[in-house]
Amino acid sequence: MLSLKKYLTEGLLQFTILLSLIGVRVDVDTYLTSQLPPLREIILGPSSAYTQTQFHNLRNTLDGYGIHPKSIDLDNYFTARRLLSQVRALDRLQVPTTEVSAWLVHRDPEGSVSGSQPSSGLALESSSGLQDVTGPDTGVRESETEQGFSEDLEDLGAVAPPVSGDLTKEDIDLIDILWRQDIDLGAGREIFDYSHRQKEQDVDKELQDGVEQEDTWPGEGEEVLAPNLLVDGETGESFPAQVPGGENQTALSLELCLRLPEATCPFGENAEFPADISSLTEAVPSESEPPGLQNNLLSPLLTGTESPFDLEQQWQDLMSIMEMQAMEVNTSTNEILYNNPPGDPLSTNYSLAPNTPINQNVSLHQASLGGCSQDFSLFSPEVESLPVASSSTLLPLVPSNSTSLNSTFGSTNLTGLFFPPQLNGTANDTAGPELPDPLGGLLDEAMLDEISLMDLAIEEGFNSVQASQLKEEFDSDSGLSLDSSHSPSSLSSSEGSSSSSSSSSSSASSSASSSFSEEGAVGYSSDSETLDLEEVEGAVGYQPEYSKFCRMSYQDPSQLSCLPYLEHVGHNHTYNMAPSALDSDKQMSRDEHRARAMKIPFTNDKIINLPVEEFNELLSKYQLSEAQLSLIRDIRRRGKNKMAAQNCRKRKLDTILNLKRDVEDLQRDKARLLREKVEFLRSLRQMKQKVQSLYQEVFGRLRDENGRPYSPSQYALQYAGDGSVLLIPRTLADQQARRQERKPKDRRK
DNA sequence: CTAACTTGTCATGTC
DNA sequence: CTGACATGACAAGTT
């Protein structure tokens, strides 16, 4: 038994450690300006539930009393397991689950999207992240959604270990590792499943349509169906025509400000980023993609080669660069991200392709990465207000077919930055497909694509559905006071002071004592009828009433705080119940029967609740036999222990409820952090696109001494630390890129 | 009737 | 050492 206890305690300790680990992980908050009170509470342990209750007391289930005490040898273990499973589930984004469920809902032939529908309810329930889903097909669906969920998360890089039994050190380590993967959302994936993505898109769309009240994306149908136009649009044929003559620099400090027609903005003011992938995918309904551009566009998304760590590091590099490079960019583009109709930027862009948009007021500074620093305050709490210059040309992702995606963003090398030869029209005629993608290493398209998918899921799916679900849970939970401030001591408040009944001392303490025993009640039955009715009630009243209130306190802990008063009231009520002495008899506890049998001259209530001094004083007032004194002591002991047991059980319940609430808080925080991360990545992607387009713009306008455009295969733009952009031979750029690539790795070592 | 749940009680340990 | 308290375990009662 001792070993088992130890084992269970260790398990719970591990659980605590796990929570702490999660807390550490989500310390992303420290620079996301977010707060995680629950985590801190868990880690620092201010919760009275934790301080009052030892973890090895955790028994039964989150639902309350779940396991029979006789199985106590296992229930601790299973409780820990259950909690661990929930915590582990935190590591898995649950949005996809919701999406899947929602998808099923909308397949309902009735077409009604009612939250009361079982499937919908299931979806909501699943979205909550809690696994206590009930209802028909729950098991199957749960497994299905779970599976799909894991799948999704694997795609997202946030892979949680399968919920298994024991929590081992390896488990914790694995969770930690997986969390890192999660952080590096989507990184390191070499394969991206089109069909899967398509499914997600469908789900997203369903969520969009259904959950958000048929808020369809206007034009997504027609506009997206113009993939062929995209090619033209992407080529930016208009660029060369607008190119202002040829600058003759080979190592050119591009201080010039490219002023391009505003009308050429690819996405327009109302383009919404999140929809782009969706539309893109819709345009590619299956793996049998339409030939041409879309394939090309998507291809770079499938070539993520960066390891999560690289990505993370590069992201940090990006951030530092962005902070260093102050650039002025029109901040009015918030609309692009937020005020846009659900129009699909990419699709819109495709449809508008013939009029390939070009930035207006875009200086070459803006072409540099640093230029985005001011625009994209990624760590702003309001990421969504991310200012993407309305004039900025958010060109759709173009395939660079780059094999060297390892250039860090920190690299000043813009060589081959998103240079899409096929798409860049005349300016890119010479662009080779082998051009490296400086940004690719930082945030490869595959990852961004995944992020977008996840973003969609979270934005449309989770935010509206799961968040509401969480809210519901919380609200419903609010009905249950988890306030651990309810001091158990309130139960043991001195009741004796209020006891109005100083029970008449039925001085007949004669024969009873002789027959006293633990079963003394046997001899009582005959005597009881002679007892003063008031005495009987007085002696009997307390316990039943008290028990009632204690029971109430279990159901609603908030009532516990007023127990001291209720206790008295209830006690007095017993006197009003006088008419039925038999009832009182029935409600009498064994000790009360014994007390009556022994003709104890005061109530059990006093015996139990009087302070020691008063209690001894009371005893001294009476001439009590040894048997009576023993019984009184036993009554006091048992009475106190009873209250202690009630308090103990209440604490257990409170602890469980607190843990449940904390788990919910953690889930909520995790969802929020993931949402924020997705938003960051999305803005990063937009930035990348912007840089890409600007690169194309700049490079396409460069002319050599002979007025001919530079070949992208031979030259590349390099971003210098001082903000200038240089045109350098590609070989040199590649060397520098490689050098930059090694640095972070060395640093990591 | 059984199983699950509730409650009281005891033993034991801690403070 | 004693009293109060906490809690695991068990048993009896209740649902």
Q: Can you characterise this structure?
A:
The protein has 749 residues and is mainly α. Helix content is 55%, strand content 2%. The chain contains 31 helices and four strands. The protein has helices at 2-25, 29-32, 37-44, 48-52, 72-90, 95-106, 118-127, 138-156, 169-183, 194-211, 220-224, 227-235, 238-242, 274-283, 293-298, 308-324, 334-337, 345-351, 364-367, 438-442, 445-478, 511-514, 521-528, 533-555, 563-576, 581-587, 590-597, 604-609, 612-621, 626-701, 730-748; strands at residues 257-258, 362-363, 715-719, 725-729. The strands form two sheets. It has a two-stranded antiparallel sheet. It has a two-stranded antiparallel sheet with strand order 3-4. Helix 6 (95-106) packs antiparallel against helix 7. The longest helix is centred in the last third of the chain and has 76 residues, at 626-701. It is elongated and about 130 Å long. The two termini are 47 Å apart. Mean pLDDT is 47; it is low at 1-583. The chain binds a DNA duplex (15 and 15 nucleotides) through helix 24 and helix 30. This is Endoplasmic reticulum membrane sensor NFE2L1. It comes from Pipistrellus nathusii. Belongs to the bZIP family. CNC subfamily.
Considering the chains and any ligands shown, give keywords for the structure:
749 residues, DNA-binding, mainly alpha, two-stranded antiparallel sheet, 31 helices, disordered N terminus
- Give the overall silhouette: elongated
Instruction: List unreliable stretches of 5+ residues.
Output: 1-583
Approximately how much helix is present in the residues?
Answer: 55-70%
- Radius of gyration over all CA atoms, rounded: 36 Å
Q: What is the number of strand segments?
A: 4
How far apart are the first and last residues' alpha carbons, in Å? 47 Å
The quaternary state of the protein chains shown equals single chain
Widest beta sheet: strand line-up: 1-2
The structural class is mainly alpha
Q: What is the number of helices?
A: 31
Strand content: under 5%
Task: State mean pLDDT (0 to 100 scale).
Answer: 47
